[in-house]
Amino acid sequence: MEHKTGHRPDRVPPWPRFLWGLVAALLFAVTACTEDRGRERRGTWPGDGFIRAQGRGLVVDDKPVRLEAVNFSNFYHQDLDGAELLRSPHHAEADFARVRDMGFNSIRFAFDGDWYADAPEVFWKWLDQNVAWAREHDVRLVLDLHTPIGGFWLDPTSDAVSFDIWSDPRTQQRNVDLWRAIAARYKDEPAVAAYDLLNEPVTLDSTGQQWKDLAAKMVEAVRSVDRNHLLVVGGLYGVNGRYGTDGVARHFLVDDQNVVYDFHFYEPIKYTHQYASWVEGPIKDGGRYPDPNTIVPTGDRVLLSESVIATPSLPPGTSDWTLHDSGVVPITDTSAVAAMPVAITDGGMRGTAYFDAVTVTEHGPDGAQIREIINDQLDAEGTLDWFHWEAGVASRSARFAREPLGHKDTGSLSITEARGDGAVAGWSSDRHLFKVVPGNQYRIRGYLRGKDLAPADGAQVGLRLDVYAQSPGAAGSGFLERSKTYLEHEMMKHLEFGIKNEVPMSVMEFGVVRQAFQMQGKGGDRWVTDMLALFEKHDLGFAYWEYHGAQMGIYLSPAGKPGEINGPLRDVLARELG
């Protein structure tokens, strides 16, 4: 998810005269196809009525439509006082025309509930002004309560983090009342496309029931004064005060028929948010798109235990940092398809084992090195990509730590007191999953040390490459390359809710950092192209993040008149939305 902080496309150069006839014929065919589907495909609204949910899609005056939007952040993240809204340099009326010229038909329009609390009269003047600009330029607004009164969890590292909306009934009621007031004011305004009730809810409870209860109150408040407008109900984004749902279902139905159920999509996060300053770490090089050498698991992994490649085990007692090397070992099992390094204690131990500076190389049958697959120095940033796990015992005792010191750097991983016969405890990172070629040879190396280490008889304490076979029945037989197929696989995890319940869904945030367009071979244009194709295939409304923004914007200037533009992104949008 984006923890965030319109220039008209260039004219097409003149074409040879003979091509215009072909173009006209193609345009006629496309128009006929569009009319057959009953949809005004891009940019225009087929009627002046309200947008409504119908089956798994949206309609205006009974004609199918999609929300094709861009996000206006409106500086929600800059601690703006509500009294300053009318002087905000974020955008002007001309930007609505630019949005329209780029091919968007809507704007997801963020606001902070505190702006209303600070200065209600200014807030209404500001919102009225923007609704009028939208009406004038035939653009519709999705009003987005991006940060509620008494709630800010989008940046966990900020001093302003607050979850009061969940713990204080009076604060919660103020947000409910705000939606009632907005709905009463705009109940007869078709230029307002929808009300997006709450952006990326992260609750304090462990089940997300707090968001379900608040969503019900917000729906009831809106419907008490406004039966016209579409509601956007986002899924659950986190529980226990942190992002991540830990197996809790993200989507749920509300008691209303005119609703689109929303999710945000930034997959794979390591790619879309590489180099982003607001991400903890931050992520450095997140790779490219598409990438046949980067794979993700899609089902239960089938371990080929006879093909595991391991370093020598740590000796008992206390030892200093020492390089442990598996040597070059062939993978001969023809069913092997993938492997991943793990730091592991297998068989039980007392004391502490430390792991650092992991490298994996691939070699041909003759032993010649083909490539270095992994070079993870496990410094303070690198350790954040690794996650611990246990198996093999009912009562789990191991303790895990991301250490502040390592072998010649600022980080390492440790496991302490993994007791019990058959106890298995380890660290691993799905980011380091890679394809293997049966017949080739592989080598894992890394630095290890022990403190008061007492392994059980036959236990292994070290690094190893776990090697996997295909997973029958799973997508891609258990592993998918980073590609459009992978994006659709991840998207379907959400869309199954819409299919099961016969309700429409949308993606009111998607986007990728500027580096994916500016760095050679990163493929940001391809990622956006594939995303837009999937939205069309699955009839999903969408909103690109964002219009202005130094790291993810179409315009990389933070505000005001368009300055530096992300040219490759602009070109993709002009081609796909024009």
Q: Summarize this, please?
A:
By secondary structure, the protein is of the alpha/beta class. It has 12 helices and 29 strands.
Question: What does this protein structure show overall?
Answer:
- This protein is α/β, with parallel strands linked by helices and 578 residues long.
- It folds into two domains: 17-286 and 483-577, Glycosidases (TIM Barrel), CATH 3.20.20.80; 295-469, no CATH class.
- The chain is 24% helix and 28% strand.
- It is built from twelve helices and 29 strands.
- An eight-stranded parallel barrel has the order 4-5-6-7-8-11-28-29. Strands 13, 14, 17, 20, 23, 24 and 26 form a seven-stranded antiparallel sheet that branches. Strands 15, 16, 18, 19, 21, 22 and 25 form a seven-stranded antiparallel sheet that branches.
- Helix 7 (209-223) links the parallel strand 7 (192-196) and strand 8.
- Helix 11 (524-537) runs parallel beside helix 12 (567-577).
- It is elongated.
- The two termini are 27 Å apart.
- Residues 1-41 have low confidence and may be disordered.
